[in-house]
UniProtKB/TrEMBL annotation:
Listed name of the protein: Centrosomal protein 20
Keywords: Cell projection, Cilium biogenesis/degradation, Cytoplasm, Cytoskeleton
FGFR1 oncogene partner (FOP) N-terminal dimerisation domain ranges (all copies): 49-100
PANTHER family: CENTROSOMAL PROTEIN 20, FGFR1 ONCOGENE PARTNER/LISH DOMAIN-CONTAINING PROTEIN
Length: 104
């Protein structure tokens, strides 16, 4: 029969392999940040260039399913909660979109 220590180790290993522990850690970090964030302190204004850069970072984070990291980026940077229109980004960056898979 397995000991409590062995069961804990197997449970931890299983949760790590499934990515559950990583998600929990990320969620806890995001919640701690939100709790510590001072809403009374005004953020500096977001320049046009930083707005575009942050939006590209957000797209990368969302593509890789880093949703808690995305929420921290939005909260810290003052980036609008609603993502910028993709066509707007393409025009502003003078980029082109591959029609077959909607990647820039």
């Amino acid at each position: 029969m397995a000991t409590v220590t062995e069961l804990k180790a197997v449970l931890k290993d299983t949760l790590e392999k499934k990515g559950v522990l990583g998600n929990l850690r990320a969620r806890i970090r995001a919640e701690v940040f939100n709790a510590l964030d001072d809403d009374g302190e005004p953020r500096p204004s977001l320049s046009h260039e930083n707005l575009l850069i942050n939006e590209l970072i957000r797209e990368y984070l969302e593509f890789n399913k880093y949703k808690y990291t995305t929420s921290v980026l939005i909260a810290e940077s003052g980036q609008p909660v609603v993502p910028l229109d993709r066509q707007f980004l393409i025009r502003e960056l003078n980029a082109f979109e591959e029609s077959k898979d909607n990647t820039i």
